[in-house]
Design goal:
- With 501 residues, this protein is mainly alpha-helical.
- The protein is built from 17 helices and 5 strands.
- It folds into 2 domains: 319 residues, Rhopdopsin 7-helix transmembrane proteins, CATH 1.20.1070; 156 residues, Alpha-Beta Plaits, CATH 3.30.70.
- Helix content is 69%, strand content 6%.
- The protein has a 5-stranded mixed beta sheet, sandwiched between helices.
- The protein is elongated.
């Protein structure tokens, strides 16, 4: 750590300790007013942090949705603190706006829960995000019902209800803290990881400090150590958040990857159900008098979650179909010659092995034709390689056009050579095909000034499987020798003589 970094860290630590220290000093001067000062200080710090966060929405390099959710969350909490101060300072009563105050203090976590659950899922569609938002709204409605449920007709809380509210707030705060810590540990993006690290520190400290404050109010009588802690600690999370946002205003440009891919996928897969679990948990805590309303909201939540699951399944099937089509297209490309669009050498090798095995059980065996364009190297030298490719395509179409059975195979063997497999065909049938190919190429009259008769011609070697042939290479070698025999006798002809030996 550099000296400047240490100095900056010291300044932030002093700023973090300054205001709580002032509150502690105020306790010595006017112990009965510290609680009042603490509420005002919390409001001021929360308001300043909210304003700072709102400014970062357009100026920060963090994802805008994350900063905006944090700003909205802090704004809701600030409004809750404002309603509390209005009741204390203006109305001098804590029962007139209690339901709104508790709703804002609980509802502040809803935007933070949403980004912890829904942000950063690359597989989530627009409709899935809409359904997540609807679950968020339903969770907020249940919060409202649960708060109204614990208030009496005058808007006050009984000791039992007060115990429930404070422990419910602890549960909500713990749930939020765990959700953000999980996203911090599994995030892959440096900016997202830095943001959730900041919010994790904030929410964990908020859980501890506000928890101490709430339970100190309930359990303490008079001024003692717990009541002092309860008054001094609440501003700390907001001060820490403001300092962290100021210290790390911009997301890191690069940072080592954090978390495994498995953990990231598990987090994204499990996150959506957290909304439903939260809705069930809040719904179960509400009094039986509101069973109908609770069942309606829970039913709508389950419907939204089912629709979301159907959408996920539909997109999965759609993606699988698309991947299968792409795989098949790639497989076709891997077995297709790029110049002639005929099957390539790889496709021939597979077909040859398959047909050789099948020919052992066929009465007529199989035949093989090796075809070579005469003097093709000279053709390339004379006309150029582009014209040579055009010649290859033309000859390929002519050769393939002579085959009429679906089982017959025609492919490019390599260079200017082509190959034909004729399953269930004896030598006599293969000779008919060879004669047909020679005639078709010759009559096509593809110009070649130095070629035979001034046109493109081919030579063909023919072979057929014998009963004594034990290896597939034997058939290939005979066809290849007959091809060179035909070329040696003057080209533009076929030869099958060695196949008859």
């Amino acid at each position: 750590m550099t000296t400047s970094s240490r100095q900056a860290g010291l300044r932030y630590a002093l700023a973090l300790a300054l205001l709580p220290a002032l509150l502690a000093c105020g306790l010595l001067i006017a112990p009965l007013q510290v609680d009042h000062w603490s509420y005002h200080l919390q409001f001021v710090i929360a308001l300043a942090t909210t304003v700072w966060c709102a400014r970062l929405v357009s100026r920060s390099s963090y994802p805008r949705v994350l900063i905006l959710a944090l700003a909205i969350s802090l704004g809701l909490w600030t409004l809750g603190a404002a309603t509390l101060l209005v009741q204390i300072d203006l109305l001098h009563s804590l029962v007139d706006m209690t339901n709104y105050t508790y709703l804002l203090f609980v509802g502040y976590g809803v935007p933070l829960l949403y980004v912890a659950v829904a942000f950063g899922d690359p597989y989530s569609s627009r409709w899935q995000k809409v359904l997540d938002a609807s679950l968020l709204v339903q969770l907020g409605l249940l919060y409202w019902v649960s708060i109204v449920d614990v208030l009496d007709a005058h808007g006050s809380l009984s000791p039992t209800s007060l115990w429930y509210v404070r422990h419910a707030l602890d549960a909500v705060n713990a749930f939020l803290a765990l959700a953000h810590v999980a996203r911090w540990l599994t995030a892959s993006s440096p900016a997202t990881r830095r943001f959730f690290r900041i919010t994790s520190v904030y929410l964990v400290s908020y859980l501890v400090c506000i928890g101490v404050h709430n339970h100190a109010d309930m359990e303490s009588v008079g001024v003692n150590f717990m009541s002092v802690l309860g008054d001094v600690l609440p501003p700390l999370p907001f001060i820490a958040l403001a300092l962290m946002l100021h210290r790390w205003r911009n997301a890191p440009a690069a940072e080592p990857a954090s978390g495994s891919g498995l953990l990231q996928r598990v987090a994204l897969g499990v996150s959506p159900i957290l909304f439903l679990l939260a809705i069930f948990a809040v719904g179960l805590s509400i009094d039986d008098r509101r069973t109908g309303l609770v069942l309606l909201i829970v039913g709508l939540a389950m419907l939204a979650y089912i629709l979301r699951t159907v959408l996920v399944q539909y997109r999965y099937v759609q993606t699988q179909d698309r991947l299968q089509a792409m795989t098949q297209a790639l497989e076709r490309l891997s077995y297709t010659d790029a110049v002639t669009d005929l099957p390539n050498r790889r496709a021939f090798d597979h077909a040859f092995v398959r047909e050789w095995a099948a020919s052992a059980r066929a009465p007529d065996g199989m035949s093989l034709l090796m075809i070579d364009i005469d003097k093709f190297k000279d053709y390339n030298d004379l006309y150029g390689h582009q014209a040579g490719d055009h010649c290859l395509r033309a000859v390929a179409r002519l050769i393939a056009g002579t085959l009429h059975r679906p089982a017959d195979f025609c492919g490019r063997y390599g260079g200017e050579e082509f190959v034909i497999l004729l399953p269930g065909t004896p030598l006599a049938g293969a000779e008919i095909v060879a004669r047909r190919i020679l005639e078709r190429v010759h009559t096509a009259n593809l110009p070649y000034t130095t070629g035979i008769a001034g046109r493109v011609t081919v030579s063909i070697g023919v072979s057929a499987r014998r009963a004594t042939d034990m290896q597939a290479e034997t058939l290939m070698e005979r066809a290849d020798r007959n091809l060179y025999r035909a070329k040696g006798r003057g080209r533009n002809q076929w030869d099958a003589s060695e196949a008859e030996l």
